[in-house]
Amino acid sequence: MKLSTFFVSSALIFSVAVARPSRLAERIAARESRRSRPFTPSDSARASGNSTHAEFSTNWSGVSPPSGQTFTTVTGTFTVPTPSGNGAASAWVGIDGDTAQQSILQSGVDFTASGGRVSFDAWFEWFPNFATDFSNFPIAAGNVITVTVHSTSSTTGTATLVNESTGKTVTQALTAPDSAAALKGQNAEWIVEDFEEGDSLVPFADFGTVTFTGASASTASSSLGPASGVILDIEQNGEVLTSVSTSGSTISVSHT
C-alpha cells in the first residue's frame, strides 16, 4: 500500500522520483507522501463474469489466498508494462492488508503515464508508513521483475526486487512502524493497485495486462499458489476496470 503525494490537476501533473529513468518536468509532488491503501470494498459486494470467487474493490485487482494460515513469504514475477493515457498504477506483492488491515509488508513497481511520457518507480513499504523508493535501481518497460517480501517476525521483514533483465538486485530490511502495525500473516497478495496520493486515489492508468508468474505464498511449513485464492477486481463509479484470471502459478490482471 503506497502513498505518494500525487497532486492531480486537470492536466494531470506528476512528480519525478530519483529512480525514474524518465524525467517528467510536470511532476511537482514529492514521493514521500505516496502510500498504498488497504483493500477497500466497492459498493458492489461481489463481481460477476470473472470467477465465482471474485470480489469488487475500489483500489485492488489481483488475487489473495484465503485466510486461515500464517503467511511469511510471498513472491511473484511480472513484466513491467507500458501505461497509456494519463494516470498511474502499481504492481506489487504483499502480506496482510485484506482482512488484516492495520499493516501491510509490500514491495513493487509504480508505472505512470503523463502527456505521452512514461516513468517507473521501485518501492518498499510497511503500511501505515509511506512508500520509499529504492535508489539506483533503474526500471524500463519490458523489464522482468521478481518481487519477494518475507517476514522474519511480526515486526521485521525484508523486501527484495530482482531485475531479471539487467541482473540488478536490491534488498531492504524493514521494521513495523509501531506495535499496531505488527503483521498477522493472515493475507498474501499479488496486486495491481490504484494507489493513493494526498488522501485520494490517483487516476487509474491503462496498463494493458500485468501477468504474475511463479506466484507463491509460503507459511512456515508449506506453500500454495493463487488457484484457491479470491479474485479481486477494481470497480469505480459503477464501472469494472479490471479482469483477472489464474492458471497454476500464473495470475493475469488486465485493464478493461
TrEMBL record:
The active site is at E193. GO terms for biological process: proteolysis. Residues 39-64 have a biased composition (Polar residues). GO terms for molecular function: glutamic-type endopeptidase activity. Residues 29-64 are annotated as: Disordered. Residues 1-19 form the signal peptide. Keywords: Signal. It holds the Pfam family Peptidase_A4. This is Aspergillopepsin.
